[in-house]
Design goal:
The protein is built from seven helices and twelve strands. A six-stranded antiparallel β-sheet has the order 7-11-10-9-8-12. A four-stranded antiparallel β-sheet has the order 2-5-1-6, with helices on both faces. Strand 3 and strand 4 form a beta hairpin.
Length: 213
């Protein structure tokens, strides 16, 4: 897995290559001990346990000298995503770098969400990590480098953004988007008829339509 910026640049931009189908294990989320994400990813790789650790470049500037420094940090601090058999899961726990292991109930949906995240961080689109998932309209991007990515519309500092969610973490990444490139879709997962009708009615209200203008 990528642990430095040069290694990040070698990762395939194709989400299905970076996060392939046909893995033999089950997806888990390793909640790591403080600042153990990269070393855990390195050790899992040595154990031949497939893992995905999305990274981003962090720029800090010294107040005293004004000099900028660059580092590579996890997009989701404290988490590493791994696909493991039961034996491999116990091997990961034996590293003593995992505080808790979260089972992923909706495996296919989780893979789709990770691929959406990979699409965002693999482009020049400005993004940031967002704690919590705000209620908003579900949309699909119809053009540009993020074409096909699905998420929720949120507004931050007056700008329209797309929240690409990872539900099991209760977190997402926010990417800047243009309203003309968005089309409304049904919320992923199963909703009963009452909830579906309520969601449709809310999306059709004049107030919500104005939010995208």
């Amino acid at each position: 897995m990528p642990l430095t910026l040069p290694e990040m640049e070698t990762i395939s931009p194709d989400p299905k290559v970076a996060i392939p189908d046909g893995l033999e294990g089950t997806w888990w989320v390793a909640h790591t001990r403080s600042r153990n994400e990269k070393i855990l990813a390195r050790e899992l790789q040595q154990f031949n346990i497939f893992n995905y650790l999305p990274l981003k470049q962090k720029v800090t500037q010294s107040r005293r000298t004004g000099r900028k420094s660059y580092s590579t940090v996890p997009v989701f601090a404290g988490y590493v995503f791994l696909n493991a058999t039961e034996t491999q899961r116990y091997r990961a726990l034996s590293t003593n770098r995992v505080a808790n292991m979260l089972f992923v109930a909706a495996q296919d949906q989780f893979v789709a969400q990770l691929r959406n995240v990979h699409r965002v961080i693999g482009t020049d689109t400005a993004f940031e990590r967002h704690n919590g998932i705000r209620v908003g309209e579900w949309v699909r991007v119809t053009g540009g480098p993020l074409e096909g990515v699905e998420g929720q519309v949120v507004k931050q500092l007056g700008k329209l953004r797309l929240a690409v969610n990872v539900d099991i973490l209760g977190q997402s990444v926010l990417a800047e988007v243009s309203a003309p490139l968005l089309e409304a879709i049904d919320q992923p997962g199963h909703m009963d008829n009452t909830k579906r009708h309520a969601a449709t009615s809310a999306a059709a209200s004049p107030r919500n339509r104005n939010q995208l203008s």
